[in-house]
Structure prediction request, 195 residues.
Amino acid sequence: MVEATPQPDRVSEMLNAWSAGDRDVAEEFMPLVYDELRRQARRFLRKERANHTLASTALVHEAYIRLVDQHDVTWQNRAHFFGIASEMMRRILVNYAVQAKRQKRGGEIQWVTLDDGIPAVDPAENVDLICLDEALTRLETLDPRQARVVELRYFGGLSIEETAEVLEISPATVKREWNMARAWLRADLDPTHEP
Prediction:
């Protein structure tokens, strides 16, 4: 029997208890958010190369271990939790890509697309995951909010509305920032573009 999705209020209560120092709540919390974390991990991995060896379950477990180790986070709400989870998954995948690239015989480049989860057919539209992470770090120095929007939308798979909730801005602002950030990233990642 499939368990119903937990009420956002229950998740928020548990996050508040966790923030207040109740470490035991993490064990009760995981089953409530596991399915959503797996969906998030599958969205991440859909953008990876077809023969990626990291499974969504492994990505969820590694991200969750890192989340449980967070001691200085005051969880605001469910959207905040999933926003942080998406950041953890991004870091794990980037680290994985860096390690794969360093393999003795050279790792494969991991291509991703800047569109909303739509795989690009033309390789020229694809971007190396490591290069994207580096460009996102550059964008963060110029506009931290745009970088965060990209992280939540692209890496976290959050909707416009969910991203707005995490960042406490309007959905219209998220759309505007998302479009501007994607344009900046495309220009930054274009080898023919001159600054």
About this structure: Residues 160 and 171 are 6 Å apart (CA to CA). The beta strands are 111-113, 126-128.
